[in-house]
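User: Sequence in, structure out. Go.
Assistant: Echoing your sequence, followed by the structure tokens.
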Amino acid sequence: MADWQEITGGITAPRGYQAAGITAGLKPSGLPDLALIFSEVEAIAAGVFTTSQVKAACVEYCRQRLQAKHSARAILCNAGQANAATGTQGYLDTLESAMAIAQALNISSESVLLASTGVIGQRIKMDALRSGIPKVVAALSETGSDAAAGAIITTDLVTKSIALETTINERPVRIGGIAKGSGMIHPNMATMLAFVTCDAVVSPALWQQMLARAADRSFNSITVDGDTSTNDSLIALANGQSRTPAITEWGAEAEKLEAMLTAVASI
């Protein structure tokens, strides 16, 4: 029997998170295409990314950021253009995106992580992104998970969202997640983006280990059409707002948290 229960709220179910999703004009369809996840405090950050030899600018950016700093406060995701195979200018667009959202949130750009999904070979429509950033920041809400989930999808037929709750040291701890991906799905991962929020206190090394193992037991086990992608990203934040004691080494609390993280990744 699972040692957790499903709750509502998605990525904003854990304490201290807000999210938003808006239409910025990035998709030709006019559907929502810009999502933002924001932690009210600096959160421990971990990531698992595509193993493709060709990596999108956002993937290279996040890998470098997480190697230098194991924390973040914001994840900005655009849909419509993958910004992969776009060369130096594509990477400069990524840097500008990080600076722009950081300025709008009044945080350091080093606390921003990025993801993109859409057509490979196309740069982000930067004019639309620039004008969309103030709108997505203004739309941030403690009930914004569904809007964010809707803004990251491309060919998906439905949004994907989950939140679970357990008890650690007699206090509730929650993990929420949203994801997109319906094609180009083949180990490892896929044309797949997944974002996870958690309100536990976890050491950076342990959180990264938990996330990597959770990915191996879930996303890295899925095949749809035998293709991997340039943009696959699984990013997880843990902001400590549950006020539980810090989990810094393997034990009963860590085992319980990892089991719930794996369940979120698998559902």
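User: And one key feature?
Assistant: The chain is about 30% helix and 30% strand.
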